[in-house]
Every structure is written in C-alpha cells, then in structure tokens.
Design a protein that fits this description.
About 75% of the residues lie in helices and about 0% in strands.
Length: about 200
Amino acid sequence: MTDPDESARFLERLRRRDESAFDELLRAHGPRIRSVVERMIGDPAEAEDLTQEVFVSVFKAIGEFRGDSKLTTWIHRIAINHCHNRRKYLGRRARPGKEAWDDATEEESAHAPLSERIARPDEAAEGNEAERLVRSALAALSDDHRALVVLRDLEGLAYDEIQTITGMPEGTVKSKLHRARGELVKELERLRGGKKR
C-alpha cells in the first residue's frame, strides 16, 4: 500500500482486530516472511510452524506498533527475533537445523529457491547442488551474520530497514555484513572442496 491514507486505514483495521485485515496482511506478507524464516531456520516444517507463531505475535502486538518504521520492517523484526529464539531452543535440543537444510527436498525448498528453476536435468542437478551448498553455508554462519545475509542479499532489504530490524547502527550492519559475506564465501569454498574445518 503506497497511499498513506489507505495504509493508515488498514493499520486501524488491524488494531481493531479486523479478521479480513489480518487475512490481507497474511496474504501480503506471509510468503516473504516464511522465506526469511526458512532461510534462518533451515527446516521447512519448522519454518511453517514458526511463521504462524510470528503472525500470532503480530496479531497480539499490533496495538504496540507505533509506526516508527514500515509495517513490513516491524514484522521482519518480529520474525528475526523468533528465529533467534527458535535456533537457541533447537540448539539446546541438539537439533541445530543444519541437517534439515541438507535433507530438504526440492519440493520443500520450492517456497523460496536460492537458484532459478532450470528445465534441463543436468543444469537442474547443478542448480539443486548450488542451492544445497548455499543453504549449508548459511547454516554455518552465526545468527547475526545469517540474518544480515538473508535480509540484504536474499531479501533485498535496504540498509535502513535492516538497521531497524536488527537494532544495529548502519555502520555496524555494513561491517558485519562484509564479514558475513567473507565467511559465507570461505564456507562455500570449504564445502566445494570437501575440506573439514
């Protein structure tokens, strides 16, 4: 919604707990948030559950949204916080999520593919392998670094939005993103070479 009056009316409907407004919100933002969550968590089934939890939190907290940022930025922040918490929980349960990424089927990863869908079988196999490598490399990054790569490089968010979502100053976002990209490249090289860390 680009019209400020329309956005304000929509937000008011959300605050009044208008179910049709929440359905619109879910249709508009659900797929993108699910993509972020899956890239952060690595497990498609876990991502589905967590995405629902994110929107339950949005529903409960919509009255607290002050409008200091875009609504979509606020929802991303809630999603990233849920992802950090879930990864901590899964880590304590000795289920870090890396294996789920490695085992994800093509159908499960079709929600937010990292590579283009290709018709030829040989190219499709290469694309699936590249996607698997990127997912595995992402899983090896720290939560902060993974979030920055997902938000900037995969979701294409602007630095000011990432700054709002993460609470980091812009300079910190840029420097950590630079380091995260370097770590991602090293991890990809390690995975391609089959070397152990």
